[in-house]
Amino acid sequence: MEAENLTRVSEFVLLGLSEEPDLQPLIFGLFLSMYLITVLGNLLIILAVSSDSHLHTPMYFFLANLSFVDICFTSTTIPKMLVNIETQNKVITYEGCITQMYFFLLFGVLDDFLLTVMAYDRFVAICHPLHYTVIMHPRLCGLLLLVSWITCILNSLLQSLMVLRLSFCADLQIPHFLCELNQMIQLACSDTFLNNMVMYFAALLLGVGPFACILYSYCKIVSCIRAMSSAQGKYKAFSTCASHLSVVFLFYCTMLGVYLCSAVTHNAHSSATASVMYTVITPMLNPFIYSLRNKDIIQALKALFVKLTTNRPIV
């Protein structure tokens, strides 16, 4: 009976980034600002792509989906964190914790998959420009997106079901501002060997695998660019990849930084603070990275602004 009672968890406690009362208003204001900027910036990208027929291409189709996923990714964690700070109540229900973990995994891995698909799109555009429209036809784009969604849904479902089988002890404090898979496994009293095996295998397959595909795509892209005789052609080819490469660099470097931080310091609060880089800051910066140096996006945003302010149709 005691073993059964351990599984009847009703709630967890999210300790957040800091337990200092004086810092709570600052953290609340900072995260609220970043969340609003993230939602607004990514929403503008989606509206710009959907409203401008010139942007109805595979590259911008995947960019709009990436923006949508970034909005969902941040909405999975930040609103609950803001509510906890405002109400001064750090409790999250067991069901809410499992649900948050499920969607955090779903949209986090989906971000990774979309960056990989976008790298493949750039590879085809630069290395096979004459066959680009034939290869990257709408059916293939839809299929790549569908496969990404299905794979991420199944992975999140598997990881969540694996956590549901765990028994938890009296210490239900999570030293994070979200219900993160690894933190929940560490809180369990029952055997977690199978959970760790599944988690590390998924990380290897769904994390390292896509990153290897991105590296391979860019090795081919660099090789094709070096083979170009025209300096202007080289610059144009590189400029089409610059934004995506910046986002990939930011996404993977921040995740690697979090991993190294947790491995070196063994401090859960330091790891939680470092994770802000890829859970909050990266989704916030993505719209700026893709729009500041992209004339098509800027033009579409200007046209959208004109339409919203003057009710003129977008040409």
Task: Describe the 3D structure.
This protein is mostly helical and 315 residues long. Helix content is 78%, strand content 3%. It is built from 12 helices and 3 strands, in the order αβαααβαααβααααα. It has helices at 2-7, 24-51, 58-75, 78-87, 94-127, 132-135, 138-164, 181-187, 193-227, 231-265, 268-292, 295-310; strands at 11-14, 91-93, 173-174. Strands 2-1-3 form a 3-stranded mixed β-sheet. The longest helix is centred in the middle third of the chain and has 35 residues, at 193-227.
Instruction: Please give the order of strands in the largest beta sheet.
Output: 2-1-3
Mean pLDDT: 88
Q: Please provide the count of β strands.
A: 3
**Terminal Cα separation, in Å?**
70 Å
Discrete helix count: 12
Helix content: over 70%
Which radius of gyration do the C-alpha atoms yield?
Answer: 22 Å
The low-pLDDT segments are 1-7
Q: How many strands, which pairing sense, and closed or not: the largest β-sheet?
A: 3 strands, mixed
